[in-house]
Design brief:
alpha+beta; two-stranded antiparallel sheet; elongated
């Protein structure tokens, strides 16, 4: 049997020691669903795509093991959830996960876009671009790096929470979505109320006007305003730094 290991940061939790079984236990490999030869016994609830393992010795902590493999404590706990965030559930004399297999790509049955896995829980089904979250990332830095707003990132990955405390490492997050209802890849952000049948887009820069954009694309101002109604009849509602529609299906 295993023995529980208390994290060094939680001084009030005692270490529980259990007598080892006799004769001495020896690990034996077995095949898991990821095809990797996995030693046993493992930490309860260990992720199924693990491909690197560490034998937990009495006295070791989550932070100590993470440091050995140059991973974060958050990653270690994510891959070994039974250990818990305070590491009080880590068991000695079992194997813990310290590395995962590269993500595989599958095809979404919802939107036809090739969607890499694993993904952020609760990610929107109409996503068409993805970002692999690595150690040190946060919602704001990902949004800035990929040219979207923080609000959009949270909207498309709602499980991260408004303060980004639930952003998972080692998974794919959504950074773009398919245009509503037409299957066209739509850049973001867009003009409010833009037509759902848009097929071509223009990035509005400071100084642009409805007239100048319409002239550039050989369309009438009335067509431009009908496809981007929030701009208004006088174009006073045209937003810079967003995409406007300049052609429809």
């Amino acid at each position: 049997m295993g023995s529980a290991v208390a994290d060094a940061s939680v001084a009030s939790v005692p270490t529980v020691t259990l007598k080892p079984s006799s004769p001495a236990w020896k690990p034996s490999p077995t095949q898991l669903i990821n095809g990797v030869s996995t030693p046993t016994p493992t930490q309860a609830g260990m992720v199924s795509n693990c491909n690197h393992f560490h034998f937990v010795e009495s006295g070791q902590t989550c932070s100590a093991i993470a440091a050995l493999y140059d991973i974060s404590v958050a990653q270690f706990v994510q891959w070994n959830p039974a250990a818990k965030s305070d590491c009080t559930g880590l068991w000695a004399s079992t194997y813990a996960c310290v590395g995962v297999a590269p993500p595989t790509t599958t095809t979404s049955t919802l939107n036809g876009v090739a969607t890499p896995t694993p993904t952020q829980p609760g990610m929107v089904s109409d996503c068409n671009k993805f970002y692999f979250v690595v150690s040190g990332d946060n919602c704001a830095s990902i949004a800035s790096r990929t040219g979207i707003s923080l609000a959009q990132f949270i909207q498309w990955n709602p499980s991260v929470g408004s303060t980004c405390t639930n952003l998972w490492l080692g998974v794919y997050a959504c950074i773009s979505v398919i245009g509503p209802g037409n299957g066209i890849a739509t850049p973001t952000p867009i003009q409010d109320g833009m037509t759902k049948s848009c097929k071509s887009f223009y990035y509005v820069k400071s100084g642009d006007t409805c007239d100048s954009i319409a002239a550039s694309y050989g369309i009438s101002v009335s067509s431009f305003i009908s496809w981007n109604p929030a701009a208004g009849a006088t174009c006073s509602g045209l937003w810079a730094n967003t995409y406007a529609c300049v052609a429809v299906l």
